Every structure is written in C-alpha cells, then in structure tokens.
C-alpha cells in the first residue's frame, strides 16, 4: 500500500472522527438548543484585518433571553463583512444561556461527506 493511499485513509479517518464528535455534541444538546438573533458588540480577527484571504472574524454577541440582555462568554465565527452592531443569528444553550453553540447539522454532514469522498479516493488509488 502506497504512502499516498495511507495518507488518504488517515485523512478519511480523521474527518470521520471529527464528524462523529460534531454528531455526538449535537445529540447531547439537541433538546437544549435555543435560537435567537443578537447584535455583534465586539469583533476580532485572527490576522490583520487588511488580510482578507485565510483570515476569520470572531464576534462577541449580545442577545435577549427571557427579557434580560446577555453578552456571550465565547466568540463565534462571523463573515468578514460583519461589523459591530450587525444582527447575527445565534444558538445558545437553554441551561447556560451565556454560552453560544457553534455546532450545526451542516458541519456534521460536510465532515461525513468529505470522509466518504476521501475514502473513495483512497480505494481508487489502491486499485491502480
């Protein structure tokens, strides 16, 4: 078995495990996830904001839960075009409303699909 095939098999396993992690977290929190819209109160970027490629913007969000305003304890990734004061859809934990939840079913599906595609590529390379 070639080293390229092993690399693809390792990548498939890693993607599968990441997908499993996302799925398990979603299953654990499925009855506690609440959705609302909040406002961005602070943003920071991974690198200098002038760098638009390979950069990410992280935001603290303020939102209302049961009539009281809460500022999130953790940051979430937002589009690079987002600014302070912009509305953003969020998910938070009903039992701990200060904590935003970043997991969603789309990430689970993407990890699993990428895992399957990488495994197929490894199998095709193995037959050659």
Number of strands: 6
Number of domains: 2
Assign a percent range to the helix content: 25-40%
What coarse outline follows from CA principal-axis ratios?
elongated
Task: State the assembly state of the protein chains.
Answer: single chain
Describe the structure.
The chain is of the alpha+beta class. It has 2 domains: 1-32 and 103-128; 33-93. The chain is built from 2 helices and 6 strands, in the order αββββββα. 13% of the residues are buried.
What's the helix and strand layout?
Blueprint: H1 3-29, E1 33-45, E2 57-65, E3 68-71, E4 76-78, E5 87-93, E6 96-100, H2 105-127
Antiparallel strand pairs: 1-2, 1-5, 2-3, 2-4, 5-6
Characteristic terms for this protein:
2 helices; elongated; 2 domains; 128 residues; alpha+beta
What's this entry about, in short?
With 128 residues, this protein is an alpha+beta fold. It has helices at 3-29, 105-127; strands spanning 33-45, 57-65, 68-71, 76-78, 87-93, 96-100. 39% of the residues lie in helices and 32% in strands.
């Amino acid at each position: 078995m070639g080293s390229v095939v092993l690399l693809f098999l390792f990548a498939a396993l890693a993607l599968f495990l990441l997908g499993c992690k996302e799925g398990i977290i979603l299953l654990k929190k499925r009855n506690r996830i609440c959705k609302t819209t909040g406002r961005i109160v602070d943003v920071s970027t991974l690198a200098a904001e002038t760098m638009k490629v390979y950069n990410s913007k992280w935001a603290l969000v303020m939102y209302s839960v049961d009539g009281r305003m809460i500022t999130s304890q953790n940051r979430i990734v937002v589009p690079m075009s987002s600014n302070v004061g912009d509305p953003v859809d969020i998910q938070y934990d009903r039992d701990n409303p200060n904590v935003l939840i970043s997991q969603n079913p789309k990430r689970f599906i993407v990890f699993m699909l990428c895992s399957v595609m990488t495994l197929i590529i490894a199998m095709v390379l193995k037959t050659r």
